[in-house]
Every structure is written in C-alpha cells, then in structure tokens.
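#struct-help
A.M.: can someone run this one for me? Single chain, 411 residues.
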Amino acid sequence: MSRRTPCTVAVVCTAAGLVTVLALGWTLGHGIDERGTALAFGLLIALGELARWGSADGGEREPAPLGAAGALAYALLGQHAGEPTTHGVLQILAVVVAATLAGSVPHLAHGRGPGRDHIARRVLTVGFAAVCFQPLYNAGQVGELVGYGPYYALCIVGVLALTALFDAVLAAALVRARTRWPYGPLLRDELRALLGIASAVGATGAVMALAVAVVGLWALPVFCLPLLLTQFAFRRYAAVRTTYRQTITSLARATEIAGYTPPGHARRVASLSRAVGRELGLAEHELTVLEYAALMHDIGQLSLLDPVPAGATAALPTTEQRRIALLGGAVVRQTGVPADVAVVVERQADPYREQPLTARIVRAVNAYDEMARAQGPGGPLTALERLRLATGHDYQPEVVESLARVLARAA
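D.P.: on it. Structure tokens below:
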C-alpha cells in the first residue's frame, strides 16, 4: 500500500509533464496562431493566478478560479468575433501552462506557489476539455451536428459537465493516493463541491467563450469581473471560517488551562476523530461538526468542583458522565456553533447504539487517548485491545476498527 501512495500521484504528474513538454515543443516549433487572442487569454490566466488566495495544497479545491475559468474559456473557444479560430489543443495547453507559471512567480517567491498536483490537474483538465471540443469544431462537425444557435451553447455546457466530472474523479484519486482515505466519500465531496465555486468557474468559462465568439476580446474583462468579485467574497468567507475555528479551539483549551484535562488532549481527539470520520465516509459538513464536537467534548468538566484525575471521564460512573455531557452541551449551545455540535457533546454518555455516528467516534477516540496516555510506552496497543474488548457494550466495533486502521497508517 505504501508503494501505491506515491505511484498514482507520480503517474498523474508524469502524464501532465509529458503533455506539457509536447505542447510547448510543438508550439515553439510551429509558432503561435492568433497571437492577440493567445496573449489576451494568457494575461487573463496569469491575472487569475496572481489573485489566488492560497496554495492548492492548503485545503482549497480551486484557489485560482479566475485562472481556471480563463483556461476553460480558451479551451472551448471556437470563434473570435464571428471568425473561426485556428489554435489547436497543443497551443491551448502551452498558453495555459506558460500563463499559469508566469502568474505563480510572485507566490513561489513567498513559498505559497501552486503544488504540482494543482498544475497537473489544470493541465489534464484543460487538455480534456480541449480534446473533447477543438478537434470536432475544427473539423466542422460541431456546426453540422448542432449549428451555432442555442444547441451550440448546450454543446459547450455538455463539454463542461464532462470536464467537471473528469476533474472531480482526478482530484479524488490524487487525495486518495496521498491519504489513503476511502475513494467513494472523496469523490462524493468533490461532486458536491461542483455546486459551489466550481459551477461559477465553469459557467464563467462557458460565457466568456460564447461572448468572445460574438463580440471579441472585449468580452473578457466584462465577464471576468463578477468571478473576481466572487473570489474575493470567498476569500472573506474563508477568513471568517478560519477565525471561527480558532475561537472554538481557544475555547476548548479552557479545560487545559484550568487543569481539568491534559495539554493537547482536545486537539488530539479532534484530529483522530476527523481521520476516523474520513475513514468511515462522513461528508465534509459532518466532519466539521465532528471536529468541533471533539474539540469541545470536555467543556462540561468546568462545572466540577474537583477535577477528574488526568481528565479521564471514561472511567467515571455513567450518571456522572451524563451530567458532565449535558452541562457541556449547554455550554456549547451558548457559543453559537451549530446545534449538531451540542447534540454530539450532550450524548457522549448515552449507550452507543442510541448515539449518532459522530458521537460514537468522539466517545471511542476520547477513551483511546485517555487509556493510551495512562498505559505508558505500550499504551496505544493496550488501549486498542481494551476498546475491542468493550465493543459489545461501550463502543461500536466499526468505529474501533477504523481507529485501528488510522493509527496503523500513522505508524
């Protein structure tokens, strides 16, 4: 398995590299057709890369939406102001790669440039769109089959839909290769993300290609402005979410500062719980609820007059666990986090068969961290064995086995 992890990424990046070398070599040897059009789209893509809000490896699915929309528009460009275009697939790839790298130079200088996965995805996705459209258009088959009216626009939308599906499959495969998380949930999250900014990127690319076909290159600044404003809005939204998560993390540390729980316990439980949730196929919004609940699962201990030794609530009587959980849920409800988070915290002491899956995960991971810390050097293996022995009553077997797989990969 460890050999397969870099293999998929290496295959994708090698394929993208070979395509890039072929495209650049062919374009340099044959020259650039319609240099004004190529320059305009190249500047648009470079501007999109300059306006990126982070690294593609830092959690954003598309950190440079304007650059992606410009690349898709160039790949789907059939006419320029009513005149047929003559650029081909290889020139499209050469312009896209050159513009992407040019726009990434300032970010690379600050260590925030695009990762190789991002560039490989851009090359292969744009190449897929161009291969689906340009040969048919240049051969005149698009005009013969659908004409240049409403059905032509539907043809563009159809190519975009196939391209979006291809990109989602590719993105999920790259994440699967690096993390070994289950592929199905990853693909599901990528497909759900198509309803967000990915749909705006695709729609803008299609509209720009259609508008340039009618009015020329003046359409580019007109239609890229809304996406640029949307990009800045998403950046603000991402900053708010980051601040929100930092606030919850700081609140969760209150039990550590007060001496009720060991340092780092909440963060360890949150990290492991999220990994187990990934292993079990939870959706992205469920993982967020799970992470917030894991960070705040011990907040009810602040109501105790005397701290529990080492904060180990798993060893307390059920009635005391339930009281702490209910008090913790009441505190969480006052913080403004989603009600689902409070429910997970409140139900920590319920029988696991009556708990939601997120609560089962937090309960098992919390018990594991407490047991592993108490058992000394051999703690992790002993803690897992104790969890397995208690699966008949206290912990869900599937959750415990998922935890074991996560820990095995980390080791």
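A.M.: thanks! The radius of gyration is 26 Å.
D.P.: also worth noting: Residues 35 and 300 are 66 Å apart (CA to CA).
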